[in-house]
Fold this sequence. Notes:
Radius of gyration of chain A: 17 Å
Number of strands of chain B: 2
Oligomer: heterodimer
Number of strands of chain A: 0
Helix content of chain A: over 70%
Largest interface: A-B, 9 and 7 residues
Helix content of chain B: over 70%
Order of helices and strands of chain B: HHEEHHHHHHHHHHHHHHHHHHHHHHHHHH
Strand order of the largest sheet of chain B: 1-2
Amino acid sequence: MTVGLEHYLTVGAILFALGVFAVMTRRNAVALLMGVELILNSANVNFVAFSRYVETGIEGHLMAAFVIVLAAAEAAVGLAIVLAMFRNFGTVHVETVNRLKR
Amino acid sequence: MSENAIIYSALAILFLPLLSYAILFFLGKKLPRQGDWLGVGLLGITWVLALRVFAHFWGVNDPGYAIEANLRWIDLGRFTADAGILVDGMTAVMLVVVSTVSFMVHLFSVGYMHGDRRYERFFAFLGFFTFSMQGIVLSNSLLFLYVFWELVGLSSYLLIGFFFHKASAASANKKAFLTNRVGDFGFFIGILIFFTAYGTFNYLELFAAMQIDPIGGALLTFAGVGLFMGCVGKSAQVPLHIWLPDAMEGPTPVSALIHAATMVAAGVYMVARLIPLFDPSALLVIAYIGAITAFLAATIAVVKTDIKRSLAYSTVSQLGYMVMAMGVGAASAGMFHLTTHAFFKALLFLGSGSVIHAVHTQEMPLMGGLRKKMPITFITFLVATLAISGVPLLSGFYSKDAILGGALAFGMTDAHYVPFILAIIAAGLTAFYMFRMVFQTFMGKPRDEERFAHAHESPWTMSVPLMVLAFLAIVSAGWQGPDTGWFSRFVAPYDLERIVDEHAPAGLVAGGGHAVEHHAPAAARLPNEPHDEAAHGDETAADSGHAAGPAHGGPHGDDAHHDAHHDDHHAVHHKAHGLAMTMSIAIAALGIFLSWLTYIRGSISAPRVLARLPRVHHVLQNMYFFDQFYAATVYRFVLWFSWLNGAFDRIVIDGIVNGFGYLTRLLSWFSGLADKYIVDGLVNGVGAVIQGAGESVRRVQTGRIQTYLVYVCFSVLLLVLVFRAL
């Protein structure tokens, strides 16, 4: 059996679903960020896969590299926010951080 | 002096005191010596000018000579009014009287008011008072007469209440003002009647119009009595004399001014000036009121112990004389007495002021023996007393005698003896109470040693006016009885005929109104007399030649008939004057003698006499119960009427107003309800709906980012499905 585009896409879809599921359900801010990371990476898988099978060139690879950089920046900012959150509220539980709502 | 010079002098005489008032009122406090020199100086100039005008008229020697100057003041098409002045002999005399007395009072006040807190204000008010009075004197129309008349009322109010911190002074000036208002009311009605009838306020035009077209009988009497009511108020005649004694609350120089030259003289002057406007019935009223006033006031003066109040009643009494003189047809004698009286009564008041200044009391029983301490005051006071008592060779004798002669002549020709009898008794009483005053104040032993020890002669500013006035009290009548003497240069004597004609039995005045036409034209056209025009046709024609001048034209012996008539009157007059002179000398001597017996020799004991006549004493002490009478009737009526009006106001007017208020409130309440439930309901309803909607929509916004994510995911899924289906 050859590994084709469908397989990559499937993996990407599963990763995306898992990421979305994590973002939707987890209450821990760190876990949330991890979910976001999964979603981004599922997109990366798709980019690379489409780049390999559909279009010859390195646009897909380029986009993947961008996304990785972006993810790194996002993780840095996100973790900094989480850190600040923990310093101020003593928790990283997103449900309890609702001061603006009140 | 040319006519223009006289007009300008007269205007200066009028306005210089006003200038003094204006400057002192606004700048008095800033001037050195508080500006008293300014007031005195301006009055001095006024005085000199008045003397010049007087001298001119002395030279002219014609009572009918009059100068008039007019300025159009109001021009409303059909209604016009002029501001103008009229200068004739009578005016000239009055100008001198007013400015002399005012000048003396100013000078006297420098000493008397020294150290007063409102020193400069006092001089300002004196100037204003003088201005008002000169205005009355100079005015040539009833309108301006009335204006200045009221200004005199105002300035007397200001001066009587000068010591307004004293409750008695404050109520005295109110009383003076209100009492005068009563008289002024009648005065105003009189003026309006004449204006309605002739459409002019000008004296000379009125006099001329009166001759051509006299107004109806009863109306003329009514108008005359109305005018006279003004005099009753201002000149303090019974029954409106009550304010004058209370006006003694003012400073003594003010009393001198009010009693001698201004205010009270205004009423007499007004009647004399307007004498052609009075018909015989009105004049009869005037004669009786005057005589009654003269008598009543003299009797009250006898029992008063307050020196100023006694003098006040003396003034009322003397004013009664003058007014009576107007009524009995001796108007010139009345004016003559006004002139001489001004000097000696001012002197008496200033003298009493000097005494009060020295002993600090007004009660005569606390004085006595002051002649040694105050020789100048004593001698001048004595001169004035002799003059007012009617001792021959002094001014008062001649003028009073002219009045008494006129009254007696009136009685002899007209059978109205009552005025003369009352007047002659009052003359005796005058001599009695005036000497009582002198004896109690200056003679005998001091009754209060402490006060006596502090007494002293007054400074020169106070004694010089006394001496000047004493001089005038001696010489001002000249020495040419039995008529009005030099005064006839200024005011024509004899107006008797016009009254005699009306009242005399037919036999006495042969020829009836025939000759009178020439003598006193205004009166000859008496409307209530059945006037036979056909019979008098020729006289009417001749008459119009005299129409322009004041009514008392002198004798014009142009036909034999007239001469005979004139001589007839002259004889009556002559007889009356001789008789009156004898009687007045006798009764004055009797009064002085009785006074001497009572207060010097002590052969008559005043307390014992009074004890014999308790009723009389009681009545006199209470001044004939005039005040009580007014308290019981007028005041009570006014209070009741005010209460009634108040009740009407409270019940009816307030009821209507409150009713409207209640109605408005009710309507507002309904309107409020509508507003609250309908308008507000709508507004609130809209709000509530929006709020409810917002409330329900709000639930979607949970603030949980994950929930939003769920929405997003499912929305995207939904969209995918939908687009798929398409």
